[in-house]
Amino acid sequence: MSAYEAKTHLAQILERVKKGEQYTITKHGSPIALLVPVEPPKKKDLRTVIDELKRFNKGYTSGITIRKMIEEGRR
């Protein structure tokens, strides 16, 4: 479909894309864009997320002690 047609009927086209349709947008007869539905994000298993957080937290230290934070807050 032409860019003009896509612009003119954008709301209707988006509803159809939401249902799974795909459109190639053209300008002067040449394809310039592909309008496709977005894939829903994949959900991770809760156990996997917890394990990733534990691995991240294992070696992470900020180098700032509670004492330093208290002293900074007093300034």
Structural class, from helix and strand content? alpha+beta
Low-confidence stretches: none
Largest sheet, in brief, is: 2 strands, antiparallel
Q: Biggest sheet, strands in spatial order?
A: 1-2
Any overview of this molecule?
With about 80 residues, the protein is an alpha+beta fold. The protein has a domain at about 5-35. It is about 50% helix and about 15% strand. The chain has four helices and two strands; from the N terminus they run H-H-E-E-H-H. A two-stranded antiparallel ribbon has the order 1-2. The protein is elongated. The protein starts with a helix and ends with a helix.
Give keywords:
75 residues; alpha+beta; elongated; two-stranded antiparallel ribbon
Itemize the secondary structure elements and their pairings.
Elements: H1 3-8, H2 10-18, E1 23-27, E2 30-35, H3 46-58, H4 66-74
Antiparallel strand pairs: 1-2
